[in-house]
Amino acid sequence: MNVHVITGGSSGIGKEAAFSLKEGKVVITARRENLLQEAVKELKEAGIDAVYKSCDISKPDQVRALFEFAEGFGEVKTLINSAGVSGVGMDPKKTFEIDLVGTENILEVAMEYMNDGVIVLISSMMGHTVPPEKDRDQYLMNSKEDGNIDKLVELANGKSDVAYNFSKRGVQLLVQKYAEVFGKKGGRIVSISPGVIMTPMAEKAAEEHPEQMEFLKSMTPAGRNGKPEDIVNAINFLISNQASFITGGDLKVDGGLSLNLGKLAKLKK
User: Residue 267 — pLDDT band, cuts 50, 70, 90?
Assistant: First the structure.
């Protein structure tokens, strides 16, 4: 049986992606077991063959346990990594550990357990706000090396939102780092950079900061904020045979908002 592993699968984009996988075994994971239990119940009611395994992707031993669990059902063919934190109110180092180091933890283990298939990493349009910079990019691509996270925290000036942006550029760079490695096994790896997507987290932000969210929508050429299904549609295309020649890159699904990020940055000054 083909197995699909989805991190961050208890809510938001990860959960919506799980609902779209009608064939094979779906293994969702996140840190909070109660939310995973609720999500699996909903998925089963929708006819999805789903199970869960709690996992903190920042801890390599838990990531390995996740893949061992998934392998018990068949061959892991799909990995969708949507686990992460927004950086808002987070410690910058913790943001790096979850969004960047956690992503590489997942990739390192996936290289051992997946013989082929497709890996989709959820990045962010904010990763595109970070320009290339040789030394910083080396730290982002090798964040697990001793001292590199501390160097990145310093470069982010201790700001969690900057740490988030750096981490998401790092996710895009990890796609490049692992594309050839996974390609030799017959697999593909890509990332998706969403814009403002109305997940439960974004809905809460809209309630707390309605003017800011409305402004972002006004700056989006598509004329609306995104819906989780916009990202899921992109995921389903990328994991399908229709995308068999697509690997090593990033797909922006942001309604064009990233075209205006330069204008937004000027307005903040």
Answer: low
Q: Are 149 and 93 in contact (CB under 8 A)?
A: yes
The model's pLDDT over 18-65, given as tens digits with 9 standing for 90+, comes to: 999 999 999 999 999 999 999 999 999 999 999 999 999 999 999 999
Mean pLDDT rounded to a whole number for the chain: 93
User: Is 0.90 surpassed by the pTM of this model?
Assistant: yes
Locus of tokens 């801890």? 59
Return d(Cα 269, Cα 266) in angstroms, integer: 5
Report the C-alpha gap between 66 and 50 in whole angstroms: 14
β-strands 50-52, 25-29 pairing:
parallel
Token pair for 38: 């609720």
Half-sphere exposure of 268 (CA within 13 A, CB side): 9
